[in-house]
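Entries read chain and fold; for instance:
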Amino acid sequence: MVACYSQIMSEDVETYLGGFYSPIGVSIGHVGLISPIGKPRIGAGVYATSRRLFIVGPGKATFPSSLNKIAAGSGKGDFVPSNLTKDQNDALIGALTENKRFEIGRGQVSQIEVKKPPGFLRTGSLKITSADGQTLDIRISLNMHYEWTVRLVQAFKPEAVTLD
C-alpha cells in the first residue's frame, strides 16, 4: 500500500494547497498590466502553498496545463490536493516558483481582503497587504473566481482574511 503524501505531511514540509489561472476575469491591478502597444493585458493566476502565495501574471495561460501534467486537475480552482505524492507536491511547488510574477510568504502577509464582484461588468478584488504596508491588488470579475479565491486564501492564512 502506498501512503498518500497528505498522510505523512508535517508542518516542516511546504505543501501545495491549490490555485487557478484565468485568461479572462482576473488581472493584476485595477485595469490590468499595460502591454507595449498600450492595451490592457488581462489574465492572472492565484496559487498557494502552506508557506507562500503566488501570483502568475499575464501570458501564462498555458501554465495550468503544465500543472495538470504533474497532477491531473491541479491547476483548477476546485482541486483538492489530498492525494498528492511527495514528488507531485514538490514538482507543483517548483513550477510555481519558476512561473511566478509575485510571491509573498505566509509570515509576510498582514491582511487579505476579498471583495465579491458586485454585478455585471464590475469587478471584485483580492487585496494582499504585507507586513511593511505594501499592497497588491488583483481584480476579479467572475463569481466563480471569487469563490475559488476565498477558499484558497482561507486555506493559506485564515486569520488574515476579511470578506466583503
